[in-house]
Write a structure and sequence with these properties.
Blueprint: H1 4-30, H2 42-47, E1 53-54, E2 57-58, H3 59-78, H4 83-112, H5 117-141
Antiparallel strand pairs: 1-2
Helix pairs in contact: 1-3, 1-5, 3-4, 4-5
């Protein structure tokens, strides 16, 4: 069983972790040299692909906005401000984030044919956040 308070803290912690990964990626995207990539050269391949930005905005910037928004909603939720609305916003945002991450991971696997360690890590973090939200949601229904 996971309490609402614990789930909210987990969402906040994972949001901060995701923010750090996205901020690091955005920094790496701004450099002209090779990226720091713990596994292979996939990070550089992904960064140089046409899918590294959306409407001229680097993809990691969207991650920063996503994770900061999730963290902010978590803080708002902890102050007992209309939690039903906050919980729905968290769920909607998490579903959107995971959906977008799944699309980007699909592109890495089948179009770019290279995986960026940091991008996959960010996707895993967003899935964990969604899982925590879904567990909390299911337990609150009981």
């Amino acid at each position: 069983m996971i309490s609402s308070k614990l789930s909210n803290r987990l969402i906040f912690i994972f949001s901060l972790l995701g923010f750090a990964v996205s901020a690091f990626l955005l920094y790496e995207y701004s450099l002209s040299g090779p990226m720091v990539c713990p596994v292979g050269k996939g990070c550089d391949i992904v960064r140089s692909s046409p899918y590294a930005s959306f409407f001229g905005i680097p993809i990691p910037a969207f991650g920063i906005v996503f994770y900061l928004t999730m963290a902010a909603l978590s803080v708002i939720h902890s102050h007992e401000i209309p939690t039903k609305i906050i919980k729905r916003l968290q769920l909607l945002l998490a579903l959107t984030g995971v959906g977008f991450g799944a699309y980007l991971t699909y592109l890495e696997a089948f179009v770019i044919k290279a995986f960026c360690f940091w991008c996959v890590l960010s996707f895993i973090i967003s899935v964990i956040i969604l899982k925590v939200i879904l567990i909390r949601r299911n337990e609150n229904r009981d």
